[in-house]
């Protein structure tokens, strides 16, 4: 079944929602928002070498002023006798309109592209604004209760009750009686599952609509679903995409198909895999991280992955530089990958860790750019954390990216496009002592050349074992 819920029937439907959740083997959720980022686009805001903490902080900072105005919840209960799932889907319209003169009058923002997209999908904005379910945060509820108690005390002649306003849009304190329940909840991200073995070699597109289509074909099987008699069910042939209740329903179907696929690897094979199966434990409480090169997920119940980034360089350069300039600078090192941080800095991933020291040596003579290893960059950034934060109207602003660069790198004057790092490959017949002697001689000549011409720096290094 599915049911649209507004302020008109919320109280009536709420007991049914609670019962469905209590009976469910698992639930799936989805949401529709008024926007995604109030600053740069998500692709410009993030880079491929963010840590999970950095990614979360960036996205949270630029999303807190948007509204969730449709919330979808779908419950799934497995019936072993029929080998099918009983589903109950609810589509909540939500809007924090003030319900009294003293209740909060919430300010929020919209992103035009998000609103335009939802309008193209037939989203009912009138229902949100006219009949959306009003709500309060815990902090707002506490404020209203204290204000009520203060007025009542004044009427009864008891004097003024001391009142301290709360912080507003901060982290919520979880009530003590709910903490044990939250610890029992296991979260599964279908996008992460689809992007991980053993699925990623079979599934080519992890967007919800395409994922659902692929999971209806072999080697997967679509689950059988039913709803209580007299109640309406979502029809997947109509594809009511971007209605939160429908998307929650489809998300649950995708999870069932992927979970049951794991049963085919057992001996003997099993056609049904429970959401509590140990086969699914590797996916518990991990959220997919999009466009991060070497960290696939954010771990909500343990330490995050810390991959080695010994092949990564942190490069600062003039604002005029483009990606092509970085490719030109590192052209001698073969394939590289560039992840921009801001207009004057980027991460550069080399194909071989052994090439890092060569690049570092060449940067000592550079006039227009500066290079640090990833380890040096992280160390300097941690040292500058306390001194690089400044208070703004929006709270503490972290400028540690630029501070980290300035702690060990002095910004040099701009010299236009960079000269590529030149590397000469020596023959296999060279002796070790001869190579050392020639390297010392070349370094002396290079120092003299830098003094004569500050605009160029051509450094020649031996790569007998590295580049041959």
TrEMBL record:
GO cellular component, one term: nucleus
Signal peptide: none
Descriptive protein name: Poly(A)-specific ribonuclease PARN
Residues covered by the Poly(A)-specific ribonuclease RNA-binding domain: 302-379
Organism: Sinocyclocheilus grahami (Dianchi golden-line fish)
Keyword match Hydrolase: yes
Record-listed E.C. numbers: 3.1.13.4
GO terms assigned for molecular function: metal ion binding; poly(A)-specific ribonuclease activity; RNA binding
